[in-house]
Specification:
The protein has about 110 residues and is an alpha+beta fold. The protein has 2 domains: about 70 residues, Winged helix-like DNA-binding domain superfamily/Winged helix DNA-binding domain (Arc Repressor Mutant, subunit A); about 35 residues. The chain contains 5 helices and 3 strands, in the order ααβααββα. A hairpin with a 2-residue loop joins strand 2 and strand 3. The longest helix has about 35 residues.
Length: about 110
């Protein structure tokens, strides 16, 4: 999982993932969408492919890239515990505000 975190730590790689969530794209389309040089896009795609976040398929003489959403499951699992903690805190704040409101109504 550390490799996945390292891969998405770079902003341009996250931008590439965002662009690929819209659908399958060739390197040239990513270059245009992200205003990056082709070698940069290719390098980032290689890193994302090595950790399994991106897959490619041949389409004639070009390669089309897409996100493999199943590889994002570890992130979802990791974030879920923090999401629960935040939800618990918000519930406690809500309870506290309701208690303050009840106290204010009594006065």
């Amino acid at each position: 999982m550390a490799d996945l975190f390292t891969a998405i730590a770079e902003r341009h790689r996250r931008d590439i993932l965002d662009a690929l969530f819209e659908g399958e794209k060739a390197v040239g389309a990513l270059v245009t969408d992200l205003s990056l040089a082709q070698p940069q896009v290719s390098k980032h795609l290689r890193v994302l492919s090595e950790v399994g976040l991106v897959r490619s398929r041949a389409d004639g003489r070009r390669r089309l890239y897409s996100v493999d959403p199943t590889r994002l499951a570890p992130f979802q699992d990791w974030l879920a515990k923090y999401e629960q903690a935040m939800s618990d805190r918000l519930d406690r704040i809500d309870d506290y505000l309701k208690e303050l409101q009840r106290q204010g109504e009594k006065q």
